[in-house]
Amino acid sequence: MEGRLNDVSEYNASDLLWLGDWSTAWLVALVVLGVIVIAVSIYDLAPMKPARRWTLVSLRAAVYALAVLLLLEPAIDLKNVTKVKNRVAVLVDASGSMALEHEGRARIDRARDAVEALDLPAELEDDNHIWDVFTFGGDLTDTTANALSSVRPTERATDLGAAIATLARRYERADIGGLVVISDGTDTGEIGERTRRDEELDAVTLEAVKSLQAPINTVAVATPDALTDVAITRVVRDDFAFVHNKVSVEVRLQVVGVEPTSFPVKLIRDGELLQTRDVTVTADETAYTVTFEYVPKSIGKEIYTVEAPEFPGEVLLANNRTHFLQKIIRDKIRALQVVGRPSWDERFLRQLLKRNPNVDLISFFILRTDQNVHIASQSELSLIPFPTDELFNSELPSFDLVIFQNFNFGPYNMRQYLPRISSFVKEGGGFVMIGGDLSFASGGYADTPVEEILPVGLPPRTSPNLVDEALFRPQLTDAGQRHPITQLAFDPASNARIWASLPEQRGTNLVLAAKPDATVLATHPRIKVGDAMMPVVTVSEVGEGRVMALTTDSTWRWGFEHLATGGTPREYQVFWNSAIRWLIKDPDLKLLKAEIPADEYTPGDTMTARVRIQQADYTPAPNVEGKLAVSYRSFEAMLERSPETKLVREVDFVTDADGEAIVEFPVDQVGIWTATARAQTSAGELRDADLALAVSAANELRDVLPRPALLAQLSAATAGVHSESAVAHRALNLNAPRTVKVNKREVIQLWDSSIVFVAVLLLLGTEWTLRRRWGRL
Amino acid sequence: MHWTRRSFLQALSAAAALLLSRRAYAIGEHDRVAIPLLRYAGNWNPRPNALRRLLQSVEQRTSILVETASKALDPASPDLFSAPFVVLAGDRAFEPLPDAAILNLRQYLQAGGFLLVDSAEGVQDGPFMQSVRRDLARIYDASRVVVVPRDHVLYKSFFLLDKPVGRVVVSDNVEGVFDDDRLAVVISHNDLLGAWERDNFGSWTFDCTPGGETQREHATRVGINLVMYALCINYKADQVHIPFILRRRQWKVD
Q1: How far is the C-alpha of A176 from the C-alpha of A168, rounded, in Å?
Q2: What is the average per-residue pLDDT within A358-380?
Q3: Which of A:569-588 have CB within 8 Å of B?
Q4: A616 pLDDT higher than 90
Q5: Interface subset of A 365-424, CB within 8 angstroms of B
């Protein structure tokens, strides 16, 4: 026994164990049995004096308890254990905002001071903790206290949430003693996003930080006091907008340290001032919002700049201006069909356009002229005024395509609007003039602004012959065999056969030769203009827009009369659908398409450009060699409207089996990067370009106002210590090590002892003796 | 419509203007709007001058250019596809159309053709109309023949109309067959052609009952609306027209 006592002294911890394998039901049964035994004893001994009675009851209860104890087999688990030190992580913010200076000292230097003040133990280890030092920005990076002196605050984000998540994964099996976060608190990650200034921590953040089960101690290296900054913190907008549809852009600003005043915020599109909104600064508010509304004019990508003025003493000027790329797409093709008189040609085209779900058609037909008999009152008619001013003045820019179908402008006082139609086309609109007795020269368009944009010249209205009534079949030119409008079949021979099978056209307007920059797709088989055949289907590009002249008014027969000879309406539908897509510059008609999938990059990134080339029949064009030119233009050049663009590199590419090529190139400075792809194919030289922006650390410097309150909230939520000045590590709140290591262990069974049996016998003997003496058997 | 001296003079001056004005050409006379009759084994032309008279009214009152020469087409002929608007008229039962005609008509209507069926019988569902229903059921499922609702654009394609009257008023509605949202077939029981019919001296051939000349004017307006509908389809259902039309309908009600 003495030896065993010596052994016990070697242990520094013990646990009581129960070795008896009794179920809970048995234990309950034993307790119930004990209660019954004692209750019966109390009843049985009732005639005795109370002192004697309770003595005997106590002895019987003690015997029963000892018996049950023997059944439970108690034991002592003796252990010799030592503590395992837990991990404490020191997280030092190395994001871009830490480079900013306050009162002559950068935030990162203050962070270094704070690490030094922690007075970390030598070898980063003390009795309870092992200390790890990290920097964080977008993610977590290992470092040491000494290496901190050379760390540059260049991280593009401050994402404490991501850093904590990474840390939790690293410490998955380790006991965490706590965190020490040294930062300015300008979190640009999810925590900062979810928890706005002056708001409580949100539930998701609370759950995330509490899941660590460790205090987060925080040291704020900067406060917003005595700071001056005007920052565009965020531009809230959709990723894309619809052309001709109003777009709303919300700009959030943060203004600190600026005396109450008013200043303009500008919205600039492609270097041109679009709108200005005033911000009125008050003494109480720091957050402001302005909203811009505008209407994108054309599809593609537009570069927008939001700019606030600079104020003296600002901690950072870079966040007074931001650039973004707006992708403008088409919602529906908005087409305006103006018709001089109802006809089958008008009817079939309207039906085609109305049934096209991608076309939003506005039609205006002249149903009655001054030459008609007016014997019914206006109230008996469904006629409406022809809203020329509304259509050709205010609403014209909202259309993608204007169709003049056998329409003469003269009777409707429209001469004043003809220049607007010309401008509409030059600014990117599509225009088609379809023949008829009220069209081209017969419609009085000679020597008007509309003739200027038409791809064919017009004879004067006084000319004796303005139309030819003979039937004819248009003859495709070389260009017409390849052009998407007149290519009714991909195979040239099939295409020629189809054109030869189409019903004849019932006459044509007489026009002069095609203009030099026009493309004649089909000609009259007999009528000549000079040495060339008279154009019937002619297209041209005018400024940013496109124009088509079709000198007949019976293409409807391709979709109807054609059926009489076993044809289908398909040719009519293909012709007009292709014409509309070509006129509105449908991107899908491009045989070469260059695309930069992402809109924004950061200097140091690799930009990816994808080139897709299709054959004339829109199947992939593999093994096509081409060049991709990468050019750069600075934002300053754009804002100064300087054309200065620098060719940075030219890369050769070859398309793969899918007709695609991927070209990657480094982006080394902020500005506008354009990728222009060129390739020589059977359809001639193809070319397309796309652009993307390189902007400095997108969000990091948008909001540079320190957020010590956010750090304090994180500490409070996790029982950590928050400080806005240097603090020694001993003053931090950290978990004590929870994990122990068992060096030696022994289990001593208490029930397996003669003392217990002797005790039971003594108690039973005493009870028996007293009971006999006190007169009970 | 009551002719006053003022309206008569207006009509006279307009007619004079038409006569004196420069002749307007469609490019090729073929593209003027013509309305041929369908020829079949039976009395296919009970009102020989009616369509010519209607088309004259169309040209006088609207901007549409018409071809007034009478024309008839065999429904089985490929020539059917030269005219997107045809009329099937009659006053008695007729033999079933040949299968080739039925096939041709089905393709014609599906491709965008427009068929006006007009009964000159003066009764609803007489022998002619029963023959029509028999053959229409060979083109379309019989359930597709429906009453054209009064708010349909047919009643406002040019004139604002309340009722599709003809020489007689045996039915307050026209029936029709819709192809998607387009009326491909219109069936009139009221002898529209009878109201338009004149002899070669310009005198009306039949009296209109019970409404007399006012009814005839309305029947002419129905005809003009049918031509306008065939050419413009649902143009007057476009959003831009609705406020104007509602305002005028309201004015009439008040």
Answers
A1: 9
A2: 86
A3: 569
A4: no
A5: 365-369, 371-376, 378-384
DSSP chain B: ----HHHHHHHHHHHHHHHHSPPPPPSSGGGSB--PEEP-SS---SSTTHHHHHHHHHHHHSS--B--S--EE-TTSGGGGG-SEEEEEESS--PPPPHHHHHHHHHHHHTT-EEEEEE-SSSTT-HHHHHHHHHHHHHS-GGGEEEPPTTSGGGTSSB--S----SS-S-SS-EEEEETTEEEEEEESS-HHHHH-B-TTS-BSS--TTTHHHHHHHHHHHHHHHHHHHHHTTGGGSGGGHHHHHHHHHHHH-
CA distance A39 to B219: 114
Q: Do B10 and A373 touch (CB under 8 A)?
A: yes
- Let me know: does A146 contact A57? Beta carbons within 8 Å: no
Of residues B1 and A102, more confidently modeled: A102
- Strands, sheet with B72-73, edge to edge from the N-terminal-most edge strand: B72-73, B37-38, B85-90, B114-119, B182-188, B175-179, B145-147
CA distance A635 to A152: 26
Dihedral, A694, A700, A703, A709 alpha carbons, nearest 10: 170
Count of beta carbons in the 10 Å neighbourhood of residue A513: 18
Token code pair at residue A117: 């003040």
Using a CB-CB cut-off of 8 Å, the residues of chain A touching B24 are 437
Whether the CB-CB separation of A100 and A108 falls below 8 Å is answered with no
pLDDT one-digit tens code per residue, A191-204: 888 887 778 888 88
For residue A276, what is the enclosing H or E element? strand A272-280
Query: Who contacts A57 (Cβ-Cβ below 8 Å, separation ≥6)?
Result: A38, A41, A42, A45
B248 pLDDT higher than 70: no
* Amino acid occupying residue A287: A
Which residue blocks in A646-753 are alpha helix, DSSP H?
Answer: 708-717
Q: Which residues on A lie below 8 Å from B86 (Cβ)?
A: none
CA distance B199 to B204: 6
ipTM over 0.90: no
> Residue B210: is the preceding peptide bond cis (ω within 30°)?
yes
HEC per residue, A723-772: ECCCCCHHHCCCCCCCCEEEEEEEEEECCCCHHHHHHHHHHHHHHHHHHH
Cβ atoms of A18 and A74 closer than 8 Å:
yes
In this predicted structure, which of A226-240, A505-519, B18-32, B183-197 has the lowest mean pLDDT?
Answer: B18-32
Q: Is A337 on the interface with B (CB under 8 A)?
A: no
Q: Do A506 and B27 touch (CB under 8 A)?
A: yes
Q: Tell me, yes or no, if the pTM score tops 0.95.
A: no
Cα–Cα dist A206/A198, whole Å: 16
Which of A263, A270, A265 is closest to A252 using CA atoms? A265
Query: How many C-beta atoms surround the C-beta of residue A637 within 10 A?
Result: 17
Q: Which tokens in the block code for residue B12?
A: 């006279």
Residue A437 and residue B27 in contact, taking contact as beta carbons nearer than 8 Å: yes
Q: Give exposure, B141-167, as e/b (b: 16+ Cβ within 10 Å).
A: eeeebeebeeebbbbbbbbbbebbbbb
DSSP A440: G
Instruction: Give the span between the Cα atoms of A370 and A375, in whole angstroms.
Output: 12
Rounded Cα gap, residues B25 and A196, in angstroms = 73
B246 contact partners, CB below 8 Å, separation of at least 6:
none
CB contact under 8 A, B1 and A507: no
Instruction: Quick: pLDDT tens for A285-330.
Output: 888 999 999 888 778 889 999 999 999 888 888 889 999 999 888 8
Please state, as a whole number, how many other Cβ atoms lie within 10 Å of the Cβ of residue A158. 31
DSSP A90-140: EEEE-BGGGG-EETTEEHHHHHHHHHHHT-PPGGGB-SSEEEEEEEESSSE
CB contact burial A248-285 (16+ within 10 A = b; e otherwise):
ebebbbbbbbbeeeebebbbbbeeeeebeeebebeeee
